[in-house]
Amino acid sequence: MLRLFIDSGPFVALYYKDDQHHHEAVDSFAKIAGNGIRYRKLYTSDYVLDEAVTTCRRRTGSHELSVRLGTDILASKSIVMLKVDERTIQESWKLYKEKGDVKLSFTDATCAALARAHGIINIFTYDTRDFRPLNLNVISSL
């Protein structure tokens, strides 16, 4: 069964109409909603939720839009919400420290650690430079 981890970028692009990836995100999430993708298990995390909601509010200036984004992620029946626990924090911190040559946020490190822990090798993201060095297959369009 193919699994896919969803980073914050596609969520933000879906709701922020001025994002350069907005149309790609709309098309990709329409395929997800219509079961038109080959991935059967979709994942994200509580840290991605935090980053997506915060980034959406910062870029759009709209509290209402960021609340809608967060509500839709939390209510999704097709996306499994993974939680960052103590073990994930330690793995992420180790990865973050080791990858000083990569423009990697700590949230990105948690995504990679969670993906590894759950046997996920594909990530839906627009941050291709951040995730390729982490041995994840970057998917930027579904």
Short key terms for the protein model shown above:
single chain; 142 residues; alpha/beta; Rossmann fold; five-stranded parallel beta sheet; 7 helices; 54% helix; globular
3D structure, described in words:
The protein is α/β, with parallel strands linked by helices and 142 residues long. It has a single domain (3-139), classed as Rossmann fold. It is 54% helix and 13% strand. It is built from seven helices and five strands; from the N terminus they run E-H-H-E-H-H-E-H-H-E-H-E. It has helices at residues 8-15, 22-33, 46-60, 63-75, 86-98, 106-117, 128-131, and strands at 3-6, 41-45, 79-82, 122-124, 137-139. The chain has a five-stranded parallel sheet with strand order 3-2-1-4-5. Helix 7 (128-131) links the parallel strand 4 (122-124) and strand 5. Helix 3 runs antiparallel to helix 4. The two termini are 16 Å apart.
